[in-house]
Amino acid sequence: MTERPQSIVLQALVLSSALLAGCDSEPNVWDAEVESPVRALGLTGSVALIDAPAERVMMLAVEEDLTLATTSIPIGEGFVTADTTADDARLLVLSRGVVPRLSASDQGPSLRLIDGGTEPRLAATYDLADPLSGLAIDPISQFAVIHPSESDVAFVQNPNELIVVDLGRKPGATNPIALTLRSFGGRPQGFTFTDPLSLPGGARRLLVVQTDRDVALLDLADLSIPEITIRLTSGTTPRRPTGIAVSDGAAERDDDARIAVRTESEPEVIVVDLAPVPAEADAGTPQTFRALPNVVFVGGVPTDIAFVATDGGLRLAALVPSRQTLALIDPATGSIDEIDLGGPFESLSVVTKEVGATGAGGDVALLWSSSSPQVALVALGGAVGTPYRSIERLDLRRAVSQVIPVAAPNQHLRVLAATYGHEFVVLDLLARTASPLVASAGARLTTSPDGQRAWLTSPNASAIAQVEFATLHPRNLALSHGVFDALDITRRGGGRAVIAMHGVGTGSLTVLDALDPSLSTAREYAGVLLGDLP
């Protein structure tokens, strides 16, 4: 056997020691198989790499010189899922623990809350009653709901069990709270957290739970109060709710809040008034309001709904592609005005905050379609009685599969992704312009949290491109491998960095200056999860 030179042996020992140090001396890391590609989530000041086999999350912050600083946070056994809060400030990690749990020393299910700033840390661990797999997060980051999913496997399962976590409070005897919905044969399918609503008995937020056949309303201020169930199915065929819209009504009233429901295959919408409880029933009713549903026929299956302001007052807007119309329903009377759209639009978004209200104080809605290469802006302030003068259309090359919002100061922009091909369109809602961007095969676009730029990546192309919204000039950089994600974060000491995640290896990535990306300053890492750090 040929003897290796002493210098090579010493180099190997030094490398081994460095790798161990880079992994925070966690012995289980070296026994675990690393998943590839590694799942990465971007937060405000760090990137989370989910290393489930090693039962940890590796948090990556970026120094001023673009080097990485790592923090390894244990997540326990049985990783299920992880997601960020809407503001990207915190990360939620759900784990089942040991299943089945045979002894007190076995880890139980938990939800971990991790601060995602430039100094990431574990903020709280919430122990859970049962190992459930579904996770829904409040858009304003106050609550999380853990619920059963189709992937849960148990000898006995309660499909209507929910665990509600108040993320603003420390773990304790009353946080989380486990509860069971009254069941009429359904199981939870979707969750809507309302804004504060002025209801009889005071302002509060509701959790609207969609099952596969009805809708339940829970009072988030007091989860001990029984839910109100709105039954949508009376026969043997379930009516599956697929969309929810919520209105608080007039600011000075507490008796006109409403919830609207559309279903999967019915040519109607259900408008639910949240009305005061009658005086004669008040003593025996734990809730301070009741739900009064009204069915409104719209002539076709609606594909999207939203409450909007018009020159005629509050209306429920319902898109009906089969009729190529936008139905405007008066929620108080059920009467309908129809706007002929001239195309089968399927989705709508209210963009009044971005473009301003109409002269009559009405909302403006953006419409798009996955089957027709058009978008439209509908000025609802002039919609009632003048349906043909309220629409402004823009023709595109391709139909739209996704509308990507842009953060301030460019909140008046939307990026439209085509249903096929590799094209994107930057839509300016104020100027009414549509500027195309053409990418190579498999391209994916993400926008930066500071609203200044977009990143285009592809696992099929060893490159990354930056597009500044101010100029729409693409800046292409060739990298060593394909890029399946670009995560734009604040770096320590100021400035911004982008971490380009490669789909190879054990946490292979490239760090670039997000404001001035250059290969001369970029830093490449072949395997962050195995300690490839400077």
For the CA atoms, what is the radius of gyration? 26 Å
* Order of neighbouring strands in the sheet with most strands: 1-2-3-4
The number of distinct β-strands equals 42
Ends distance = 34 Å
Main sheet properties? 4 strands, antiparallel
Strand content: 35-45%
Q: Quick check: average pLDDT?
A: 88
Shape: globular
Number of discrete helical segments? 2
Structural class: mainly beta
**Unreliable stretches covering 5 or more consecutive residues:** 1-27
Helical fraction equals under 10%
Write up this protein.
- This protein is mainly beta.
- 4% of the residues lie in helices and 45% in strands.
- The protein is built from two helices and 42 strands.
- A four-stranded antiparallel β-sheet has the order 1-2-3-4, with no helix packed on it.
- The two termini are 34 Å apart.
- The model is unreliable at 1-27 (pLDDT under 50).
What key phrases describe this protein's structure?
single chain; mainly beta; four-stranded antiparallel β-sheet; 2 helices; 42 strands; globular
SSE topology:
Elements: H1 6-22, E1 39-42, E2 47-51, E3 56-62, E4 68-74, E5 79-84, E6 90-95, E7 110-115, E8 121-127, E9 134-137, E10 143-147, E11 161-166, E12 177-180, E13 188-193, E14 197-199, E15 202-204, E16 206-211, E17 214-219, E18 228-231, E19 241-247, E20 257-263, E21 268-276, E22 289-297, E23 304-310, E24 313-320, E25 325-329, E26 336-340, E27 347-350, H2 352-355, E28 364-368, E29 374-379, E30 391-395, E31 400-405, E32 413-418, E33 423-428, E34 433-438, E35 444-447, E36 453-457, E37 463-468, E38 474-478, E39 483-490, E40 496-502, E41 509-513, E42 523-525
Antiparallel strand pairs: 1-2, 2-3, 3-4, 5-6, 6-7, 7-8, 9-10, 10-11, 11-12, 13-16, 14-15, 16-17, 17-18, 19-20, 20-21, 21-22, 23-24, 24-25, 25-26, 27-28, 28-29, 29-30, 31-32, 32-33, 33-34, 35-36, 36-37, 37-38, 39-40, 40-41, 41-42
